[in-house]
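Residues and backbone
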Amino acid sequence: MPRALIIGGGPAGLMAAEALLSAGIDTTLIEAKPSLARKFLMAGKSGLNLTRMQDIDTVLDHYSAGRRQLEPMIRAFPPEAIRDWAEALGQETFTGSTLRLFPKAMKASPLLRAWLARLTALGLTTQTRWRWTGWNGPALTFDTPDGPRDLTADVTVFALGGASWARLGSDGLWTAPFAAQGLPLAPFAPSNAGLIVPWSDHMTRHFGSPLKTVRFTAGTQSSRGEAVISKRGLEGGAIYPLTPALREGAPLYADLAPDLTPDALGKRLAKPRGKQSLSNHLRKTLKLAPAAQALLMDCARPLPQAPEALAALVKALPIPHHGPRPMDEAISTAGGLRWQALTADLMLGDRPGTFCAGEMLDWDAPTGGYLLTACLATGRWAGQAAARYCALAPDARPGGSPRG
């Protein structure tokens, strides 16, 4: 029997394994899928955003839920440490114009291969196609290709992910045995998700078109950047950070000219248009891209004729929506195991020696490096705490006290 079990083979689980193995503790990692880190690999196909090279307080401000609890973990493994960790794996990195940190290879696969080679050299044992199904007293129960199996260990780290992209492994099924033990759970909800918008047929020719340099606002949240008009609604980096407000039903507004004041817009729109159509007048005076102009027409037709009223509409265009796309299509999820179940070391207060990490915890953050930063930081924190626990004599091990 291994001294340590890691359940879940994503970034948080791999980082916990690295911490335990580095402390010389015999560790087995168990994954339900045939291979490890599938969601990590998928996320890295279009450019693996490792973290955001901002000052630590700015980074922490992007965690809309769980900031207080995550702070010591992220301070202990900040963006600079993530960069150094990646480069120690032989992966050169660079910082983009938005302070996102990428490996020069721009893919997750080279980093993952190097990481797994390091863990194998440290002695990691891996079992794939093993699904954790619950507890049988102190033992953990698994469905395996060879039938049911029970395992016990000195310490266990759960890193079971959220509830999006189930086909890649994050299916949220772990919540059933956790709930059966009376552990407190916050319901999962989509985060960093596309938005459902009921377009008219006139928008069909704009599907796939980007909306650039637009500021979107929902509730108290605002995001400037690029979104893409899709058949199903709006997608992209300017929409994803607004998911917490949008899933609560907040209305969405778009500022199609964020660099111009309403007064400046009004003056431009007040210029005589002669025989031009209002559409041509808008195109020439405001330099709106075709996709932005189509959005304006689709959401607000008939447009007001008064320049001041039209300027106000361009600055705050209401976009009707039906909320975020389904949870399984979201990049990440909010909700999960509530912090009140855990000690400061991420150990379950009711199950000494059992630790939890990653997206299965109840926190939320936008894309742009913040998701992976928290997964790596919590995995490392839980792994180090598990190693300290494992090093104690059995009669000296703490019983755990949830911190609330």
Q: What stands out?
A: The first strand starts at residue 4 and ends at 7.
